[in-house]
Amino acid sequence: MKQYDVIVIGGGAAGMSCANSLSVNKKVLLIEREDSVGGVLNQCIHSGFGIEFYNENLTGPAFAQRLKVELINSNCEISLKSHVIDVNEDRIVSYVNEDGYIEAQAKLIVFAIGSMERSPGAINLPGKRLNGIHSAGSAQKFINLYGNLVGKRVFILGSGDIGLIMARRMSLEGAQVLGVAELMPYSNGLARNVAQCLEDFDIPLYLSHTVSDCIGTDNLEKIRIQEVDQQFNFIAGTEKEFVVDTLLLAVGLIPLTTFYQNLAIKINPKTKSAIVDSNYETTAKNFYAIGNCLHVHDIVDYAAKEGEICAHACLKKLDEINSLETLNISILPGPGIVYTVPNMINYNFSLPTVEIFFRVNSIYKNVMLSILFDGQVYRTIKKDILLPAEMSSIKLKHKSLTNVNEIKIIIEEA
Amino acid sequence: MEKTCIICPKGCRLTYEEVSEQLIVTNNQCKRGPIYLKQELEQPLRQLSTTVAVSGSEIPVCPVATNQEIPKEIMFDLIKELNTITLVAPVQANQLVLAQYNNIVVDIRTTRDIDI
Question: Residue A203 and residue A243: Cα distance in Å, rounded?
Answer without folding.
Answer: 15
